[in-house]
Amino acid sequence: MNADRADREARETLSSFPAFYRYWMPRITGYLRSQTSDGRWVEDIAQESMLAAQRRWDELVTYDKPGAWLFRVATTMLRRWQAKAREQCTSLDDMITRGDAGLPSAGERGTDGRLDLMDAVRSLPRRQREAVALHCLLEFPMPEVARILGMSEGSAKTHVYRARRRLEELLREPAVEMEGRR
């Protein structure tokens, strides 16, 4: 996407809350889906994030990057919901039934022997998962990723680098792995 076009679209979203909602809702929902396989949370967190934006609309329109604010709110909400879900896992049986909070194991592969991209992203450690989704899937620049996640730009770069390296390992075709072992 052209940077000028993206800047123009982002500015236009501030013309009204409905325009902001139409532009950012599919992006925030997609981001949240990349973070958890438990779809029950995605729509609720996306809606709650948008409600928070609506409540602070007069202040939000003055921000340079209101989208970054929205993603930071959604990320914080998701972390809280995930922590709450972990607390509710009261037994090993419950954790097994839930599939370890909905995350696939790193070795789980489909019938064709490959991991689905979103499953692979979900299997990453939380910080790597968040950073790679924001930077690579949603195309946020690295300074924005750092700001959204509340870390230094160097840390954000490290998380994205490690995530990409791990995704490359996870998504490599089994035949390539077998050839590498010979």
TrEMBL record:
Pfam families, sorted: Sigma70_r2, Sigma70_r4_2
Query: Where does the RNA polymerase sigma-70 region domain lie?
Result: 20-82
Q: Which UniProt keywords apply?
A: DNA-binding, Sigma factor, Transcription, Transcription regulation
Signal peptide start and end residues = none
What processes in GO biological process is this protein linked to? DNA-templated transcription initiation; response to stress
Keyword check for DNA-binding, yes or no.
yes
Where does the record place the RNA polymerase sigma factor 70 region 4 type domain? 115-167
Question: Which SUPFAM superfamilies does the record match to this protein?
Answer: Sigma2 domain of RNA polymerase sigma factors, Sigma3 and sigma4 domains of RNA polymerase sigma factors
- Entry protein name: RNA polymerase sigma factor
